[in-house]
Amino acid sequence: MALNLTQEHIDRMKAHGERAYPHEGCGLLVGRFDAVTNEKTLVNLVLLENAWTDDVAADLAAADLATHGQETTPVMTKARRYWIDPQDLFETQRQARQDGLAIIGVYHSHPDAEAVPSGCDRDLAWPSYAYIIVSVRHSIAADLQNWQLDDNHQFQPEPMNIVPASAAKDRMPLLSS
Length: 177
Ligand SMILES: [Zn+2]
Prior knowledge:
Elements: E1 2-5, H1 7-20, E2 26-34, E3 39-48, H2 54-68, H3 86-98, E4 102-111, H4 119-123, E5 130-137, E6 140-149, E7 155-157, E8 160-162, H5 165-170
Parallel strand pairs: 1-3, 1-8, 4-5
Antiparallel strand pairs: 2-3, 2-4, 5-6, 6-7
Bound molecules: zinc ion (ZN).
């Protein structure tokens, strides 16, 4: 398994993470799943506003209370969490379908923390998605890593192939078979 993307995609995610600092920045990866090679190809990077609010925190805490019967410590802020507005998700999905593409993953940044998924990241993660995390230290993007869940719902590094910009657009899922 691997994720194909361009250097421009990487640069844009780093720049977005720097702009969002000291908050987490986030976005959606739109592209193609290749069932033959098990590779994902990023075509459109959709950078979004972090929609994390106290209301989202309260909703998640309530859901957690319902699931686990205990309250979680509500110390989460935009500096530690991100939330993709359902309206943004819906609109991105609609546009992707129209373009014959799909959402293949999520990008977000970690202000002054490692580019490694947190427990919360894991709880909310979807199988087969690519999860790119940009570590931003003192407002400078320091590291970028890509992760994917394994069969035990644990994150493992997923290799990234940096491809020329034209290849990311031209590569059709069926040509590789
Ligand atoms: Zn995170």
